[in-house]
Amino acid sequence: MALTAALSSSIVGVTAGLILVPGDPGYDACRRVFNAGIDRRPAAIWRCRSTEDVQRAIVAAQELGLPPTIRGGGHNVAGLAVSDGGLMIDLSRMREVHVDPVAFTVSVEGGCTWATVDSATVNYGAAVPGGTVSSTGVGGLTLGGGVGWLAGCAGLSCDYLIGADLVTADAQHRFVDLRADPDLLWALRGGGGNFGVVTRFHFNMFDVPAIVSGSIRLTLRELPLAIATLERVAPQIPDSLTCSLTLISDKLSDKYVSIDFACAAANTSHAIDVAAWFWSHFKQQPLPQLDFGYLKTQAMLDPAFVEPRRCYWRSCYINELSNDFSAALVDAFAECTSPSSVIILEHLHGAYSREPIGGAAFSQREHSFNLAIAAQWTSGAEDEVHKAWCKRTHNALTQFSCGSAYVNYVIPDQDVTSRQMYHEDSLARLRTVKTRVDPSNLFRANHNILPLSNLNSEASR
Ligand SMILES: Cc1cc2nc3c(=O)[nH]c(=O)nc-3n(C[C@H](O)[C@H](O)[C@H](O)COP(=O)(O)OP(=O)(O)OC[C@H]3O[C@@H](n4cnc5c(N)ncnc54)[C@H](O)[C@@H]3O)c2cc1C
Predict the structure, then answer these.
(1) Ligand 1: distance of its center to the CA of 343 in Å?
(2) Position 70 pLDDT exceeds 90
């Protein structure tokens, strides 16, 4: 009560229900995030409905000394959206999407998930490249990069970001684009939630005339051959096809490999031809029924990530799929402790490797594969068993990595430094922008880019 009063007195016109504190109806539902293993209790949750609400929340956070966290889609596995004792800026009521078919752009409020955006843009035969699971938030995914089914032909989500309505640490609303602030736009394309709260993202759209998707199911015994084939075929895969290889289980005794792919092309028959070419490398039988349409593709992996589950991830980039790597992968998955856990190997190529006009802070474009070890389970009593498997697997596979990792897949527990997520020149530029817009590091519940002043007092990470 006292906190609500303090929060209310720091602003004008607070509506009942806008701020939740422990004990309020809805508080527990609101502090929940994708990872059911995260059980943090913020001092207050500000359920923002507008940019002005976000500005007020930041004023309150500053005045009351409550470190803010930002909740976009709530999918960050480390639970960066919520902290014990902080102020959660909850954007889940801000989900408006507006398509401009003439400019071929779309504006998206900061709390949207990709499912909402995709269903709005698909009517125009268009898309913003999103992630591979439709319930993921646009906010965190875009600000960290954004790798999905259109990565090969269209690139990353952040490459399509042409503008942002941003509330910075001084509670000011800034419109950021290439003309108004090219450095800040560059930083938002991969630098994470370090620079403020994006209340609205403005994206260019990508023309998606035809898309087909499918899965190639193989036994675990076939994995070494599948990995060798993927390594051999990878340089010939056209930009139009994006694929990933997943180790997955129906139950612990029934583990298998799924090679999932999506192919976007000028027309359906061309897309099917490319899919058939890819398929023929892995299977003798003719190409089976494919799925047609972007929304089906975007939901292809959804069943593997059903909420609520407890999760723990480790990840790294891999540049070469050697025989030793595939042997280590087989051994690691043979010891998998939960039927819900998966290991995903995403192929990176094509437009993913090319920077957009104006550049992007996302700087890991030279890698060929992104490996994610995603442990998932339901019972809190089993936390240590499944986390230990994930860590063991990462330790066994990390020798094949080039040492760097994708910011959106990293959890703080993995202890990856900023230097492993950003190239040196990008990191230096990110720090300069951070120092300009958030010198006191108000926004630090993220993969933190330290302002230059903090660098002198803390170890340089
Ligand atoms: C099941 C699953 C599937 C995934 N698939 C993919 C994938 O295919 N490709 C991929 O690239 N990543 C993927 N990810 C990783 C995902 O990109 C990150 O977890 C990302 O942080 C999620 O964004 P969010 O908005 O849902 O997260 P949240 O937990 O809400 O936010 C995480 C952080 O992002 C920042 N943030 C979020 N919204 C805003 C905003 N509006 N303004 C400023 N900062 C903001 C904040 O720093 C916040 O702490 C996946 C994650 C999960 C759990």
Answers:
(1) 19
(2) yes
